[in-house]
Design goal:
Its cofactor is heme. The protein is of the alpha+beta class. Helix content is about 45%, strand content about 15%. The protein folds into two domains: about 140 residues, Aminopeptidase, CATH 3.40.630; about 425 residues, Orthogonal Bundle (Cytochrome p450). It is globular.
Amino acid sequence: MHTMKRNAKFKTMPATLESFGAALDFLSRFEPFSTTNLDTIARAVRRQILNGEHVVTYDGDRIIGYAGWLPTTQQSGDAWADDRGELEPSDTDADAAALTTVAVEDPTITLGLMRACRDLNPGIRVFFKRAYGNRGRGARKASVLNTTGSAPAERLEKRKPTSTAPRPAIADDPCLFLYALAEQHPGETMRIPVGETSVVIVQDPALAARVLVGNLGNYTKNFASFTPFFGRSRLTLDGEAWRHSQRISQSFIAPHDTARALALVAGIYDDFADALLATGGAPTVIDGLIDRAAVAALTEVAFSTPLDVLGSSFAEDLRPIIRYAAARTWDLPGVPSGADSAMLAHAQSATDRIRAAMAALVEHRRTSGPENDALSALIAAADETQSGPEETRIDLAGELLTLVVAGSDTTSAALGWALSVLASAPDFQDQLREEIRATIGDHDPSMADFDRIPSLRPFIDEILRVFPPVAILSRFAQASDMIGNEAIVPGDRVLVSVIGLHQNPSAWDAPREFRIDRHDPHGEGRADRKSNFMAFSAGPRICGGARFAQIEMATALIKVLRKSRLELAEPLPFAFEWGASMRRRGGQKMKIIAL
């Protein structure tokens, strides 16, 4: 294979992490890559970027076409194109290139990508074959470019350009859409058109359990847009690779030294309560203060490191990454993108700062010696697996970033909703404050204290029911299945709506009412609550830090209510921002009044 040469219109990308992320992010918008095992795609794209075995074209600074190839022989390529054999790679006697990874926004780009591959590798044949999306006809076409001619355009896949129509409601505000769906079609499993495709939404607890537990192997995660930032981590992995990662990190997600962790969290949320008071009673969007406290709790407990050591912008830098990756999850065929190049640039620069801070943290720990925390455990695991097969290696940077986000983002979102509800319900706020004073006085709470405050745990549970931080559990079907009366085919996107589960009148009495009595441990229906309450998912992928997240929320509420009164400055909109968690669009705005 000849050395790659640059081309003015179609060109290769430098072998950098940013190139890998940009290519994977672009491919994740298109079938079959959006429904293919993530490890398979990531390994192929990584090889193509590192070896220069790819070509891209841009609209400004935005990728609109990508083609990656495998060096092979003409004999193998002919057999592959005619469905007579598997494609065999060849590194030494390659005289052909098989385009195995092709995605375009506009079908007219495809031929140009094929010609660019031939031009960049003179003297070879270029093979291209794609299975079309119409499974009913099973259509399949093959194209071949040789050194003297080109494949006719009519033999290339015809794909409609991305629509310029407004974004569908489910893509623009998925959480608001799901609340409306739960009210209009309670408990129903429905196939919803989205652009040129569709998604299946599950709102019944028993059917959700089939997707998340009973037929778990058939439904893989949908986190392709997060991979460029989080790498191969327990957030993005599936199957045995996920289990391997989960076994290593799980024991440190729920702290084993709870007394130490509780003391650290109490100190952090004492500072948080003071930071709220420092707003001086002015109407303030408090989300940033909550985020900073939640991330600080995670870094102290899991990394034995104060947040300030990681840099002044560390907590704030998580938001643009999450916001961009979440926006790209709805970049489906025919759906205008919710992300742009400015969002990508912001996310990439934030990732650079976070990874630099993580690298410095790891280097300092290697120098200072191990501690009994998640950071040292993950460093040791990464070192032990470095020489093993790629699928068993620990992506240290990805795992650390995943731990930060998983250990803080949902807690932060839930705490924001809790403080907002308290601000809107002054009588209940006074009641809860008095229960705290009567039960534990002014001392820091112990583990036993949380269940002694009558309304505290039921209030937190009702917040998680009405405003579940992880409101959507997205999966890809790998094989045919039946979910209720809905026939599932391979490649279907299946969304378990936690909002729909928690607003289902068959599972919850008067589900749109905010009632803490439904979580009374001695009340009627408590025994049935477990199967209907999925704020932390279900099955093997249930949130490992669920119990500690609730304790962290309880500690924060105790600290805040002791020092201040919460008041709404104005009515807040019932509109949402969906990232890794569900937040109020525009933020949680309120006044903090000193007691």
